[in-house]
Amino acid sequence: xxxxxxxxxxxxxxxxxxxxxxxxxxxxxxxxxxxxxxxxxxxxxxxxxxxxxxxxxxxxxxxxxxxxxxxxxxxxxxxxxxxxxxxxxxxxxxxxxxxxxxxxxxxxxxxxxxxxxxxxxxxxxxxxxxxxxxxxxxxxxxxxxxxxxxxxxxxxxxxxxxxxxxxxxxxxxxxxxxxxxxxxxxxxxxxxxxxxxxxxxxxxxxxxxxxxxxxxxxxxxxxxxxxxxxxxxxxxxxxxxxxxxxxxxxxxxxxxxxxxxxxxxxxxxxxxxxxxxxxxxxxxxxxxxxxxxxxxxxxxxxxxxxxxxxxxxxxxxxxxxxxxxxxxxxxxxxxxxxxxxxxxxxxxxxxxxxxxxxxxxxxxxxxxxxxxxxxxxxxxxxxxxxxxxxxxxxxxxxxxxxxxxxxxxxxxxxxxxxxxxxxxxxxxxxxxxxxxxxxxxxxxxxxxxxxxxxxxxxxxxxx
Amino acid sequence: xxxxxxxxxxxxxxxxxxxxxxxxxxxxxxxxxxxxxxxxxxxxxxxxxxxxxxxxxxxxxxxxxxxxxxxxxxxxxxxx
Lengths: 463, 80
What we know:
Number of strands of chain B: 4
Shape of chain B: globular
Radius of gyration of chain B: 14 Å
Distance between the termini of chain B: 40 Å
Number of helices of chain A: 18
Number of domains of chain B: 1
Helix content of chain B: 10-25%
Structural class of chain A: mainly alpha
Oligomer: heterodimer
Number of strands of chain A: 2
Largest interface: A-B, 80 and 59 residues
Largest sheet of chain A: none
Order of helices and strands of chain B: HEEHHEEH
């Protein structure tokens, strides 16, 4: 052990800086800023709909060119607004806007093309669901064509998805969160605990270290890579442990983005039920949202699939965000405690800090809840007829449009940042442990989402 | 009870985040762990002030501490 008594010149980091140095908080500031602006304009008889532009349904090129000729200025304004706002965010979190701006313009143009393709009236006939198209296009570009590394600056998967989830909150009634939240927590907790224990004990049985087993277990059970990296920090994992979990989560998450909607479709699951299953069994927020949005988009286009696109998104978000993501601080605390009291009892005298429950809390969830409460309060006195006729087109639809843009940026960024060659090599033992957990998760998730609570998720009210 | 004795509200003394062996720059963490930015982020709240200890070769919390602390490093990305 080397001890150096040199005096530190370091300034003690302030708790306040989290508010402008973390993507989560920026998703809250930006998302709530958009929602508040939309609400203020709505209450004063106006709307943000001018700038919340999106491609409309089209069936031939003359319609398409007419659309873009009519709305070209709006698209430029939207690109300008996103670029300015996101550049502010990246400069605060410590990235260079100079690298971000060209990269974001690239993402925006590709997203516009994918969004437009998704609104072609023949798109569903050819299975061109925009989230999956975005993912596939991104994967092909990054793994086959290749892009200069500096372009990565704009591929901020997590920031875009968190912003989209805050905006999603504004389109979900707060009463739904109160009503369905406890069921989501119950269902997700059962699956999370079982999945974690399966991965952990299989990993231990195969001889893997406690901490690696915990990092793998958290990745499969809680919220994918985010959980793995949080638990790795909490239990003081070996430097080489997180990449093993990252590789396994990324590969399984990509498989499930395509597999879960496909299986749900073959079983003709209602959109709400499929959304709950995807929320229970998919690992990462962004990948799961791609799967849920993709499946929701099939409603009304494919025979036998009942429900609405919003039900898939709502059920998914309740299970994944409220049921799984928010508990990461608790998981970290408990595993850190087990780590210092059992696994490394003789190696450390360190104590576990209770504050990590809050420090590791995914703060964007606060924005999601506040946005939901705010819009629910504003529309509270309207009848369903008023809501559909007045509130929805002026207040809700523009927010949905901006949300869809944010999600598309994210789905595209998943593909663009997934470079299979660069993922860490993984030995057979972690693969076996994680895969056994995945199988347990997907079967138990199906049982709870479809057989036990299926009727519940199929009937959730999203307006 | 042992469990309660192992809990604390706040560590006193030097913390890893001010140690010369510790690196927590989000960009560097994303570079070190390919795939992190694909399904999570170096800049996410869940990562708190975690980073890499180049002395013990572990990934841990910057709020942690140990006897190998070497002072003198300002965590630039945390300070502004």
